[in-house]
Amino acid sequence: MAASTVNQLEKMVHPVVQPLSDLLGTWRGEGHGFFPTISSFNYSEELQFSHSPNKPVIAYSQKTWNLKSGQPMHSESGYWRPKPDGTIEVVISQSTGLVEVQKGTYDMKEGVVKLKSELVGNASKVKEITRVFKVENGELSYVVEMATGLTSLQPHLRASLKKL
THAP4-like heme-binding domain spans which residues (predicted)? Predict the structure, then answer.
């Protein structure tokens, strides 16, 4: 991309979103799911982070497919609201009906976004969710941890994605 095009895009990104601009775009890759109460599984995934100029928010969407059959597995969408002080608020609605309100921090010099649920709504079993995203060497990876009424907080999902 020409330097002038990059500069134009940077000017279009809201100043509050600018520190997270490396996330913007479409990411694809594969992940692995596991938890004591389920059978392990592998999946392919697409994450999209988009931004409307002059709005201090990032729109987020995620879809997964069974790695072997290609059948849809899960989807979720929501909004990331970064703050100038390095904190962030995230709301996510899952295809299962579960809703998450998360708060956390971002440090893009380290390439890390850490989120912890403040509220998990419409969930009979899930009590807590954390998400840690890391951008490093052109790759986006994450770990999702979950706690239920029967299990303590522990890893549930891991994935690694590349930007398209």
Answer: 17-163
Please say if the pLDDT value at position 83 is more than 70.
yes
Q: What beta strand segments (E) does the chain contain?
A: 25-35, 38-50, 58-66, 72-82, 87-94, 99-107, 112-121, 126-136, 139-148, 154-163
**How do residues 97-139 score in pLDDT, each as one tens digit?**
999 999 999 999 999 999 999 999 998 899 999 999 999 999 9
Question: Rounded distance, CA 66 to CA 39, Å?
Answer: 13
- Rounded CA separation 69/24 (Å): 29
For 24, 99, 154, the CA distances from 31, given in Å and listed in that order, are 20, 22, 16
- Residues 56, 16 contacting (CB under 8 angstroms): yes
Residues 141/160, Cβ–Cβ less than 8 Å:
yes
Spatial contact of 129 and 150, defined as CB atoms under 8 Å apart:
no
DSSP states along 37-65: TEEEEEEEEEEEEE--TT-S-EEEEEEEE
